[in-house]
Sequence to fold (352 residues):
Amino acid sequence: MALLTLIAGEPRSGYDIGQEFDGVLKFVWHSKPTQVYPELKRLAAEGLIREQGEGPRGRRPYEITEDGQSELRQWLTTTAPDHSLRNETVLRSFALWLVEPEEARAFLSSELEYHRIRLRGMRVLTQGLDLGNPNGRAALLGLEAGVRRLEAMISWAEWAIETVATWPTQEEQTSA
Amino acid sequence: MALLTLIAGEPRSGYDIGQEFDGVLKFVWHSKPTQVYPELKRLAAEGLIREQGEGPRGRRPYEITEDGQSELRQWLTTTAPDHSLRNETVLRSFALWLVEPEEARAFLSSELEYHRIRLRGMRVLTQGLDLGNPNGRAALLGLEAGVRRLEAMISWAEWAIETVATWPTQEEQTSA
DNA sequence: AGTATCATGTAAGACGTTACATGATTAC
DNA sequence: GTAATCATGTAACGTCTTACATGATACT
Fold:
């Protein structure tokens, strides 16, 4: 459905999709090229997308078919989203009591920096959106969700760094 | 590492871990029981956790070993977290231009409600934390991240509902 | 001429889900 | 006594990653 969503927006090749997965969609959906290419062939075989001839360097862009569009609409209107998530940054924070406060601080600082950089990139992408067409307006929804989640992670990391600063060291712990 | 993190906090059985995955950790890490049980056996075979005898109803709690703790510390201090995420709610928002604004609104409203309920649950869990021990203090970091991300999703959904209300209908679109 | 980037793939193995199966204890 | 919940598992199948492989075009 992620591939179908991207291709519905505008025709894309497997390579294009890989770029999106490394860029905008890194916080939304991600797959590696080795999964994308066979999956595109499968979607084409099912008639949900169709090859648009061949571009330079063996490039193979796909466009969505009518069947593909109605499949997407069905997915959106008749099925419920899966809300289970995985976030390794937060998972690790549950285990931070096992390391020295200084190591915990180092981890949180590097996460803070990473998310700040990502937020800047996300804002740039938001600027580049064409809000004149429906696809661009929907993409704005997605990017805005990304921005807000990144802001949440940044303020969390800042708060967490302050909080960890008040933790006793392992030594103080055991001696207490 | 998720299993190890949970067991490091306090001894747990596969069933306990399943409860956590359905509760607190739903927004952090998730696995199904059929993956958890064999994985626990594997971790025990590797000496990272150890069985604590058998409880009522065939219950098998595991506790972490010294090796398990140092494995966790290694993971935290020597490896970088994977930042790629998957969020089906946001993915779907990228495709919302394909359905009628009313259907988009319905989707966003139901997401809003879902996240509001989750936030309430998360706040209750935060109250129940024992901040007297290091494990509880680290769990507070994780839960606070959950709270902030849920708040971000809620404010996003509210904003998105207003935004979608300004979208032209498919009909207005095609006639324009 | 050489390096970087564009571009697509296959095969093996690891990870994760679905369907199925079983039994103990508790609450009504 | 019957339903709900607690509790653990196996087997088959589907999804995803890692390692490997190839070639075209653009830039310097």
